[in-house]
Specification:
With 452 residues, the protein is an alpha+beta fold. Helix content is 57%, strand content 13%.
Length: 452
C-alpha cells in the first residue's frame, strides 16, 4: 500500500468583522425563548451594598381577589409620590431608588416580597427601621396576607460589641442563635422570634465582605426567611389530612375484616358503596392537598440550598442558623412527605379493596347466571320434549279428522247408490293419511327452521 502525504492547511487570521457583517447575525431565525433564556439568568439581581445598611422586608401571600395588576397600580402610585419612574406592564420584579432609600418588589408564584433598603445606620439598632419611611396608608392597601416579616441590620465588626449579653438587648432579651459565614468573613445573630413590632430581627456583622458579597448574603437571609415560612404552610394541612387518613384507615380495616366473613349480596353492595364514598373523599383530599405538599417540599429544598450558600461555622455557645432551622423545619417537612405517602397508600388500598369486592360480587353474579342458564336449559329440554309429544298427538288428531272427512264422503257415496265397504276403505286410507300428515308437518317445520 502506498503512503499518503499529509494534507497541509493554511490558517488565515480572521478579518475584523464589519458592522454590516455582524448585523447579518441578527437575521438568523431564533427560538422564541432565545433572548428570554439569557435575560432570565440576570433576573432578580442581588443589591450591591456597603456596610452599614438597614433592611425591612414584608412578604404577602397572594389573595385570589387581587391580581398582578393591582400590585403594579400601587407601585406606580408610590413612584408618583416620589416623582420617579414607575414600573412597566407585565413585569415580575421592580427596583427603584425613592430618594434616600430603595424599594425592591418581586412577585413569585404564591407570594410577593416588598424590601426596603437604607444604606446607613441608626444609633440604636432596630429602633428606626426602613419600613417606617413608607406611608402607612399605602402599606395597609398592599394585597394579600403577611406571611413573613423581618428587619435586618448590617454593621462593621468595629462598631458593635459582639459579647452575647450585649447583643441580647437588641433582641428584647431573647435567646440568641448565631454563626460565622464564609470562613469568618461575617457573622449573623438572631432570635428567630417575632418581637414587639411583629417582625423577626437579624443582625449581620461584616468583617471583610465586599459590596457584592453583602448583597448575596442579604438575599440568602431574606429568602431563607420567606421560603421557611412558605414551607411551613403545608404542615397544618398535613396534620389535618393525617387525622382524616387515620380515621379512614381504621374504617378500611373494619371493612376488610368484614369481607372475610360470609355476607349476603346486599351487605357486599353496601360495602362497595362505602368504599366508593371513601375513594371519592380521598380523591378530594389529594386534589386539595397535593399542590401545597409539593410546594412545601420545594420551598424546603430552597431553604436548604440557601443555608448551604452561607457556609456557616459555629460560634461558641450559640446554635447555628442551619441547625436551628433544620431541627424545626425538617420534622415538619417529613410529616408532610409521610402524610402524602399515607394518602397515596390509602388510595391504592381502597382501590384494591374495591376491586376485590367487585370481583367477589361478579363471581356471585356469574354463579347465579350459570344456575339460571342451567335452569333455562332444563326448561328448554322439557319444552322440546313436550313439543315433540304435542307434534305426535297433532299428527294423530289431524289423521282422525281427515279420516272423518273420508267417512262423510263414503256415507254420501252410499246414499248415491255406490256400494262401498266403508270400514275397509278407512282402514286402508289410515296409514296413507297418517304418513301424509306427518310428512307435511315435517316440511312445514323444516321451512320454519330455514327462515330462522
Amino acid at each position: 500500500m502506498g503512503s499518503h502525504e499529509p494534507e497541509h492547511f493554511s490558517f488565515k487570521k480572521p478579518k475584523v468583522q464589519s458592522k454590516a457583517y455582524r448585523k447579518n447575525y441578527s437575521l438568523l431565525t431564533k427560538h422564541e425563548h432565545f433572548s428570554q433564556n439569557y435575560e432570565g439568568l440576570h433576573a432578580r439581581p442581588f443589591p450591591v451594598l456597603s456596610t452599614p445598611f438597614r433592611t425591612s422586608q414584608l412578604c404577602f401571600l397572594h389573595d385570589e381577589s387581587y391580581s398582578h395588576e393591582s400590585e403594579l397600580i400601587l407601585l406606580r402610585e408610590i413612584c408618583q409620590r416620589y416623582s420617579v419612574n414607575p414600573p412597566g406592564k407585565d413585569i415580575s420584579c421592580f427596583y427603584q431608588d425613592l430618594g434616600g432609600y430603595e424599594i425592591r418588589w418581586e412577585r413569585h408564584t404564591e407570594f410577593s416580597s416588598y424590601t426596603f433598603l437604607l444604606n446607613d445606620r441608626d444609633e440604636n439598632l432596630f429602633t428606626s427601621t426602613p419600613i417606617e419611611l413608607i406611608p402607612i396608608d399605602w402599606l395597609q392597601r398592599l394585597p394579600g396576607k403577611v406571611i413573613s416579616a423581618v428587619h435586618l441590620e448590617a454593621l462593621d465588626v468595629t462598631s458593635v460589641n459582639l459579647e452575647k449579653n450585649s447583643l441580647r438587648q437588641y433582641f428584647e432579651g431573647q435567646r440568641l442563635i448565631g454563626s460565622k459565614l464564609h470562613h469568618g468573613e461575617a457573622s449573623i445573630y438572631s432570635a428567630m422570634r417575632l418581637h414587639s413590632d411583629s417582625f423577626n430581627r437579624i443582625l449581620m456583622v461584616n468583617n471583610s465582605l465586599n459590596e457584592c458579597q453583602n448583597g448575596r448574603v442579604l438575599r440568602s437571609l431574606l429568602e431563607i426567611e420567606a421560603y421557611r415560612n412558605m414551607a411551613l404552610l403545608a404542615f397544618p394541612l398535613a396534620q389535618e389530612v393525617s387525622a382524616k387518613v387515620s380515621q379512614m384507615e381504621s374504617q378500611l380495616a373494619q371493612l376488610l375484616k368484614a369481607q372475610n366473613s360470609k355476607k349476603s349480596s346486599t351487605d357486599e353492595k353496601h360495602q362497595l358503596t362505602v368504599l366508593s364514598e371513601m375513594a371519592a373523599i380521598i380523591a378530594e383530599l389529594i386534589t386539595n392537598s397535593r399542590y401545597r405538599f409539593d410546594a412545601g417540599t420545594a420551598y424546603y429544598q430552597m431553604v436548604e440550598s440557601r443555608l448551604e450558600e452561607l457556609e456557616e461555622q459555629e460560634i461558641t455557645e450559640l446554635q447555628t442558623l442551619t441547625s436551628f432551622i433544620e431541627r424545626r423545619l425538617s420534622p415538619a417537612c417529613r410529616t408532610v412527605l409521610a402524610t402524602k405517602r399515607r394518602l397515596d397508600d390509602l388510595a391504592s388500598r381502597v382501590n384494591r379493596a374495591s376491586d376485590l369486592l367487585r370481583t367477589r360480587i361478579n363471581m356471585v353474579i356469574e354463579t347465579q347466571n350459570q344456575a339460571l342458564l342451567q335452569s333455562m336449559d332444563r326448561r328448554a329440554k322439557m319444552q322440546f320434549n313436550l313439543q315433540q309429544t304435542v307434534e305426535g298427538l297433532s299428527v294423530v288428531v289431524m289423521t282422525y279428522y281427515v279420516l272423518q272427512l273420508f267417512d262423510y264422503m263414503l256415507e254420501a257415496a252410499d246414499s248415491l247408490g255406490w256400494n262401498t265397504n266403508k270400514a275397509l276403505s278407512i282402514s286402508m286410507l289410515m296409514p296413507v293419511v297418517f304418513a301424509s300428515v306427518w310428512f307435511l308437518g315435517q316440511r312445514i317445520k323444516k321451512r320454519l327452521n330455514n327462515i330462522e
